Amino acid sequence: MTFATQITIFRILLIPLFIGLAVYYGQSVTAGMPNETLRLWTIGIFSLAAFSDALDGYIARNFNQASKLGAILDPLADKLMLLSAIITLSFTGWRQHFPLWFPTLVIFKDLASIGAAFLIDHLVGKCDIKAHWTGKVSTVAQFTAILWLMVDLPYLILPTVVAGAFTLISGFRNLADGVEQVKKHDAQP
Asked: What is the pLDDT of residues 18-53, one digit of tens each?
């Protein structure tokens, strides 16, 4: 197992810790006695996960540590961390919350992408998933919106709308790629 993949597994293991800290902080806010130490730890764990995402990608690309396992686990770790954070922060007692449409959009886009990949795999025999800049911008925008909420900056709607827009654009880009794969397969003799 490569060092880059070990970092990815470490990032996955941070998720339950993040959720626990976020929930306990939310409960402290609801009880009227916000425990700012818990909030800072939650921000720190999330920031560490974001940093480790960049680090494992850098190591995999620049030190010839790309692997099949890493190619599967890295995007999975990203999705699990982002979905966990968006859902947890939307429905716990933090001072700010994402509007309901945001977690709904992110969850629907991810489920639709997974479902479409299985459908394309069934129809075509193989689903070729390619990273696109819109997906990367969507991920960065979601990370930014989450940090914005946790740091408790004003005007949360701004990064949320940007993240939502790029989530939609990325979803439509995935759809277009999927349709193209099916068309290419159907056009083959």
From this structure: 999 999 999 999 999 999 999 999 999 999 999 998
To the question of pTM greater than 0.85 for the whole model, the response is: yes
Amino acid symbol at 152: D
| 71 shares its domain with 33 | yes
Instruction: Judge if 53 and 116 occupy the same domain.
Output: no
Residue type present at position 51: F
Summarised one tens digit per residue, pLDDT across range 139-156 is: 999 999 999 999 999 999
Query: What are the tokens at 155?
Result: 């005007």
Domain that holds residue 165: 98-189
Comparing C-alpha atoms, which of 94, 81, 74, 103 is closest to residue 164? 103
Q: What is the DSSP letter of 95?
A: S
Among residues 95, 124, 148, the one where a domain terminates is 95
> What does the CA dihedral 45, 26, 37, 159 come to, rounded to 10 degrees?
60
